[in-house]
Structures are given as structure tokens and as C-alpha cells.
Amino acid sequence: MELSVVIPTFNERENIAPLLARLEAALIGVVWQAIYVDDNSADGTAAVVKAIAARDPRILCLHRVGRRGLAGAVLEGVMASPAPFVAVIDADLQHDETILPRMLQAVRDGADLAIGSRYLTPEGASQGLSPVRQAGSRLAAGLAKFILRADVTDPVSGFFLIRRERVEAVVGQLSDQGFKILFDIIASQPAPLKIAEIPYAFAERQAGASKLDGRVVLDYLGLILSKFSRGVLPPRFLLFALVGLSGVLVHLAALYAGWSFGLRFDAAQIIAAMTAMTTNFICNNLITYRDRRLRGWRLLSGYVRFCALCGLGLIANLAIADLVHRWTPAWGVAGLAGALFGAAWNYVSTSLAVW
Ligand code: GDD
Ligand code: MN
Predict the structure, then answer these.
(1) pTM for the full model?
(2) Is 122 exposed, middle or buried (0-12, 13-18, 19+ CB in 10 A)?
(3) What is the pLDDT of residues 228-258, one digit of tens each?
(4) Which neighbouring-strand residues pair with 113?
(5) Measuring CA to CA, how many Å separate 212 from each of 176, 180, 336?
(6) 296-327 and 265-283 are packed helices; what angle lies between their axes, rounded to 10 degrees?
(7) Is 38 in the pocket of ligand 1 (CB under 6 A)?
């Protein structure tokens, strides 16, 4: 077995048979297998794959239950492979499988990684992406290139072929969330990879819908920030900080409402703080910790812990600000020091004790 083709799927039932037929045609002469990784799609994608697998032992379906995430699915597929080389391709026929033999040859010839790139030709992305997504995708690629200091045109491609050992060597450091798995693999290497890029035209999606949403974009920016800080800031911190900022707006809005309602200022301030803490908890549960979302009773007990820890964070914030203020009359410096310490405390303590 020379090549495993890992295919992550989420609601792709219509695309299973056509992609396999295309892979079959493209990989004549190669000993290959397909590893589908399905996150229990509601449309029955896994059942479709298993029906084909029952007749063809080269097809495998990893059927994950209770988990979601493209990066994690890809990693699980790669780790299940016995082959020296692993390709990753989207299930939705947007990637051009006919370049797989050239990608394979590049790695056989000594490259560690071959990337299918949409940006080596001017029209590579114009069919499959809307103008807005094209601009966003180019920006994402540019940022990644800057952080990686590597000369790659499409470091966020979902289409690549890599030596399996290069993934296994760094698998413990990779994030299992979002769409930036390739970027993460490149960024986590101890020594630079030998990379080959091969152009293709990103096709229009045939059936089903894209799963790339706002959360995926924020998640990606969080990872960029984390790499930029050389790992000092965790990838989730950006989301947590943005939720915190939204809390400030909620606080001011609630304060204004309570105040115009005729409440006393301190009463309005307390209600505003409680409101902001509650919306922060809800948003973090829905967005920052989407993959570990609390439900039912655990939601309630998590809320109580969150409020208690943020209350401690507030006390620490005040104490630090007061300490710094004794050293320097600059109130801005003292206030910022307190706020930053409070935010860091809130992040670390709630990530350990709430989610
Ligand atoms: N198992 C699993 N779990 N598969 C998933 C999940 C998930 O949570 N989310 C998406 N997928 C699968 C889809 O079924 C599809 O086969 C592939 O991953 C890509 O998802 P799309 O939703 O089609 O992504 P896209 O076409 O909008 O995004 C493309 O461009 C991105 C960068 O610009 C893809 O090529 C991405 O891989 C790429 O990162
Ligand atoms: Mn797609």
C-alpha cells in the first residue's frame, strides 16, 4: 500500500460514489486505499460509504460519533493509515483529483509535502469561490505565508499529499479544530519541509453546502495569533478575548438601560455586570468552547463556577491595579495591568474548571 487517500465528510452522501469513480480513474497503477472520516452525518453519508466498503476492501469508513471538526477528522484518518504517503482531499469534488499522480511523484522524488494550489494560476480559484471568499482566502494565505516564512501560495489548501511520518512527528501539537490543518502541520515542524506546489482549478461544489463559517475564520485567526506569539497565547484566547470585548458593550448597554429605567447607579452597575457575565458565559459556551459545549445540569453548574471564577478575577484585577497604582501615578497603566491580569485569570481558570 503506497497511498492512503483521507476524505473527511460531513453530509456529502451524493458525492461519495462520483469521487470514488474519479479517484479510481486517476490512480491507475498506484496501490491505494480510501479512508473516509465521517462525523456521523445526518444524511447517512457513513452508510453510503460502508455499503461500498462491503464490496471493496480498499475503502474504509471511520465513523466518529459525538465529535465534530475537519482538522480532527483529517488527523484521525492520517493516523489510521498504514501507507508511507497520505493524501487529503475534500469529498465534494471541488479538488481536482487528476493532479494526484503528479503530487505523488513529487513526494516520491523527495518532497515531504505536495500541495494542490489554487493560487499558482490567476484563475485557479475563480470558479469555486465567490469574490468575497476569494479575497478572504487570499488574505488567509498571505497571513499564513508571513507567519510561516515559507514560499507557499496556498498554505490553507485542503488538498495535499504528505509523508505520513511528517504528520506523526508533530501530531501532539496540532489543533483538532477548524480548517487550518495544513497550515498547522507546516508551522509545527521542527525543520522546514520540502514543499512542492501543483496548480489546479478549484471547482464549484456540486451537491451539499460548505461548512466554512464565521467561527472557522475566527478560529483560523486565533491560530495565526498563537503562532505569531510563538505559542504564548493559546489559539482559543482570541475568541475568549473577543467575547470579553462584546461583554463590555453588553455591560454598557445594560447600564444605560437600567439607568434610564430610574435605577440607582450602583444597582444598575451590578445588574449590568451580571448581565455581561451571563452573555459572556453563553457566548463562550457556544463559540469559544463549541467543541466542549456544556448542556443540561452541567450548563448550570458551569455557569455558577464561571461567575465565581470571574468574580475572583475581578478581585485580582482590582488588587493588581491598586498595587501598580502605588508605584506609578499613570492610571491608564495601572488599569490596563489589572484588566490584563483579570482577563488572563478568567481565561486560564475557566478553561480548566468550567470547560
Ligand atoms: N468529518 C468532517 N467533520 N468533515 C468535515 C467537517 C467536519 O466537521 N467540516 C467539513 N468537512 C468536510 C466536508 O464534508 C468536505 O468534504 C471538506 O471537509 C471541506 O469542507 P467544505 O465545507 O466543502 O469547505 P470549503 O470548500 O468551503 O473550503 C475549502 O477551502 C478551505 C480554505 O479556503 C476546503 O478546500 C477546505 O479544506 C480549505 O481549508
Ligand atoms: Mn468544499
Answers:
(1) 0.80
(2) exposed
(3) 888 788 888 888 999 999 999 999 999 999 9
(4) 162, 195
(5) 15, 11, 35
(6) 120
(7) yes
